């Protein structure tokens, strides 16, 4: 497998080396795709096997945070919500910044520390506002 930066470099400069690379490594690519097709996100798996969380605790309110990529690419917020909503003593709170990025993904929080800090500040403020309501 090649680093995705290699693909970006090749694509930006010339499609021919990329096409040659894919042609040479077709078997590996097929194996990787076959493997990826057998992988399932954990909350999706829990729902697929019919798992129902047993609610043993006192009543509580929770806010859900999912990674931006997992939310965008796999809709994990929906499966997470479904699991949480299945518990009688758990109330899921939806705040007005829930779908927004928290700013802490990958190297973004290091390379763009000021922007990242502002994003997380906004998200935490939204949570605090909901807590008061």
Question: In total, how many beta strands?
Answer: 2
Largest pleated sheet: 2 strands, parallel
CA radius of gyration is 21 Å
Average pLDDT: 79
Number of helices: 8
Structural class: mainly alpha
Give the helix level as a range of percent: 55-70%
Query: What spatial form do the alpha-carbon principal axes imply?
Result: flat
Query: Strand sequence of the main sheet, in spatial order?
Result: 1-2
Percent range for β-strand residues? 5-15%
Order of helices and strands, N to C? HHHHEHHEHH
Distance between the termini: 50 Å
Low-confidence spans:
1-13
Describe, in plain words, how this protein is organized in 3D.
With 133 residues, the chain is mainly alpha-helical. The protein has eight helices and two strands. α1 (4-13) packs across α2 and α4 (42-48) crosses α6.
Q: SSE layout and pairings?
A:
Elements: H1 4-13, H2 15-24, H3 26-36, H4 42-48, E1 60-63, H5 68-74, H6 76-85, E2 90-93, H7 108-111, H8 113-132
Parallel strand pairs: 1-2
Structure, briefly:
Helices cover 59% and strands 6% of the residues. With 133 residues, it is mainly alpha-helical.
Any key phrases for this structure?
133 residues, 59% helix, disordered N terminus
């Amino acid at each position: 497998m090649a680093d995705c930066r290699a693909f970006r470099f090749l694509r930006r400069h010339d499609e021919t080396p990329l096409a040659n690379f894919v042609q040479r490594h077709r078997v590996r690519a097929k194996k990787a795709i076959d493997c990826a097709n057998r992988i399932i996100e954990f909350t999706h798996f829990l729902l697929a096997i019919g798992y129902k969380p047993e609610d043993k605790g006192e009543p509580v309110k929770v806010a859900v945070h999912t990674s931006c990529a997992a939310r965008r690419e796999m809709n994990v917020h929906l499966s997470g919500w479904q699991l949480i909503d299945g518990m009688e003593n758990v109330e899921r709170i939806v705040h007005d910044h829930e779908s927004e990025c928290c700013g802490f993904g990958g190297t973004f929080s290091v390379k763009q520390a000021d922007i990242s800090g502002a994003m997380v500040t906004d998200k935490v403020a939204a949570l605090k506002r909901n807590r008061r309501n």
